[in-house]
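S., here's the first fold you wanted:
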Amino acid sequence: MVSRRLAEAGVPLWQQGWLRAARHCPSPNYGPRPRGVAVDLVVVHSISLPPGVFAGPQIEDFFLNRLDFDAHPYFDTLRGMQVSAHFLVRRDGELLQFVSVADRAWHAGRSVFDGRENCNDYSVGIELEGLEGGAFEPAQYRCLVGLLRALRQAMPLRAVVGHEHVAPGRKADPGPGFDWQGLRRMLRWSAQRFPCAG
């Protein structure tokens, strides 16, 4: 993975909250984190625009506020929304970053984890290109493993959860097609870091 090669070469993985191994696509949809809040949570999402369609520019366009809402009937449901995530992992494992991890991306909405509301304040949002409830590609898991390891080096990462876990009843992604146990085995992290994995 690119992050590993950078580390082995002595190159810092991060620069002002931007991962060097990612393709940078700065989104205008972000804000400051509350002062003194530790970023210790990762929220995993899934997204495809329109649903079930992969590899197009629509997700990137959506996070950059340049989506043509008239291009597909589904897009009309998104009209006026301004959202973002810190990262997007494409089906082929390509990694894009939209917001510095030092900043607050707009990904979780109304949410709560372990009694703490407003997960956007203290989390990193990672979107996986995929259909809610569907399966994800091996390349995506490999990229996600490298990204989570890099995040753990940069912050006191306490837990990795799905959007469905912090907004139950409102969101259901990434859904049953996501292999939480396989991810944990690949990372070799304790089950405590995956409190909602089942």
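And the second, which I think is the more interesting of the pair:
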Amino acid sequence: MDEEHVARAALCRLGEPGDSALGAALRVHGPHEVLRVLQADGPLPTEFRRRDPDGYRVRLGGPSAADDLATLTRIGGRFVIPGDRHWPTQLDDLGDARPVGLWERGPVRLRHAVLRSVAVVGSRACTDYGTYVTHELTGGLADGKWTVVSGGAYGIDGAAHRGSLACGGPTVAVLACGVDVAYPRGHERLLARIAETGTLVSELPPGCSPSRVRFVERNRVIAALSRGTVVVEAAVRSGALITARRARQLGRVVMGVPGPVTAPQSAGVHQLLREEETALVTCAAEVIENVGVIGDDLAPRAEGPLQVWDNLAPEPTRVLEAVPPHRPAPESAIARDAGVGRTAVRMHLRTLSERGLVAAQALPGSDSAEAAPGEEAVWIRTVPR
């Protein structure tokens, strides 16, 4: 680690995620100077916008950057900063609120993992419907070689990670705590599996605990890393909606999966779908169409099964519908009900018979379905309409 990495690692301890005042000072003065000023007993640069210096300096004397970096190395992690070869440059869209640095853990480099990525987020108190839809959605994304990004939380987040892992796809969990902290505790095994096959990432140094504010700020990183954000289930007040609106502010695609109109877990998604520039999606193919290559990644259009009469012209269709399905009818009655002349009806009935849609019936007292001279044939429909 060079001096800039060490300085930024130290600043990760002093500031909080999303601190745009700290980001502005870094942009103007660089990490060495900002760290020096914070360690000295003096006024802060004007970029801090009259922030209380004690808000940063009160944390001086805690774990050192060297300690944090040594811990990260011990668990097989990496610390990347803006300008590094492995820095995900889409995070620069956050401006002064971009992370000071990122603490990564896992075999897949974050920048590589999120080149083709979709964020899938939603309610912690999800329903069976939400879990099922999320598994289907993320499994399809994994099959299409798309990385699933989420927050590692209970509910839809966990289902998103599991759906991707079940299909052998890489997944990224953006944490609101250190990458060595298993939170929530019930996801210890899931997070360990992601660390073995995908990527855990955080703005916070090892050992840091989560907080409500850190969860909120974590959402902006999820939104910025991905090409688009899908909300599966979300109540009217939901962190998932914060992620979606951050994504929209960044110019990313925002998508929502509809749910039952009576379910409070989907009320926030339905509200989101009523807003402009939110795409309704129901499967992975529709998600990929929204975030993939224009003109290439088109979702197949849903169509019902092709019926034998689908390609009939209007007049033979009227003739077919005039033939009763349960009792034979004479040609004269069929012509009257269809509003088609007798000669045309006879021609259409023969064509429909060749296609197996109608059949001539034998007249009473006759062994043949062929009408005798002077008599008219009777017909019955052989397929449902």
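Why I say that: Residues 135 and 226 are 19 Å apart (CA to CA). The mean pLDDT is 89.

Talk tomorrow,
H.
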